[in-house]
Write a structure and sequence with these properties.
Blueprint lengths: L3 E4 L10 H5 L6 H11 L2 H8 L5 H8 L8 H10 L10 H12 L2 E6 L14 H4 L2 E4 H4 L6 H11 L6 E5 L2 H9 L3 E4 L4 H11 L5
Parallel strand pairs: 1-2, 1-4, 2-3, 4-5
Helix pairs in contact: 4-5
């Protein structure tokens, strides 16, 4: 029996699309095509997710690889990205509905920088969950088994009673190896809702 739903954040509860995040500061598509690969390079974001690099350090690393005319805009993107993540359509309502309808607990497990955790108020859905684990705070990232163990130990979860919802196959594989059921999210909240309605049971 599934008692716990564990959501990823980016591209599951919110849209994380680098081109959209950069657009307010870099409106020209040609400039974004130049800047986005630099500003969202995994060589920068992986250590940010692990808590080893903050946004100001990311700015210092990225700007030398951009034309000077894009320095101010690029810095602003990296300093404000966490304010620009709109909800994935239907997903906040889904998280609320399954919690109310089926009595399951809901959690977040996200690879995300330490700076984001200072702005949780921007995303009210997070306060409605039963718990959140942010990689930047603990220095462990998905798909490491240690981060799934941290989540389960912190909140008393049994992996076999949990389903993990993520958009990245490597993270899905990590959760499955840890003993969780999984769902590879493709952006379709209605389809996921149907799967959960077939999987979950009404509280007794």
């Amino acid at each position: 029996m599934i008692r716990n739903l564990i959501f990823d954040f980016g591209q599951v509860l919110v849209r994380f699309v680098p081109d959209e995040i950069a657009a307010p500061d870099i409106p020209d598509p040609a400039d974004r095509a130049l800047a986005v690969p630099v500003l969202f390079d995994r060589a920068i974001w992986n250590p940010m997710d692990k808590g080893d690099l903050d946004e100001e350090a990311a700015v210092a690393l990225a700007l030398p690889h951009l034309p000077e005319r894009l320095h101010a805009a690029g810095a602003n993107v990296l300093r404000h990205w966490f304010e620009r993540l709109p909800p994935v359509p239907g997903m906040w309502d889904l998280a609320r509905r399954v919690k109310t309808t089926y009595g399951v607990r809901t959690f977040l497990l996200s690879n995300i920088s330490r700076a984001f955790t200072d702005h949780l108020n921007l995303y009210p859905i997070l306060s409605e969950l039963d718990g959140c684990v942010f990689s930047g705070k603990i220095g462990i990232t998905k798909p490491s088994p240690e981060i799934f163990a941290y989540l389960c130990n912190t909140y008393g979860l049994d992996p076999v009673e949990s389903i993990f919802i993520d958009d990245q196959p490597r993270n899905i594989a990590g959760a499955e190896a840890f003993g969780m059921q999984t769902y590879l999210f493709d952006g379709d909240a209605e389809k996921l809702s149907g799967v959960l309605d077939n999987l979950l049971q009404y509280p007794k």
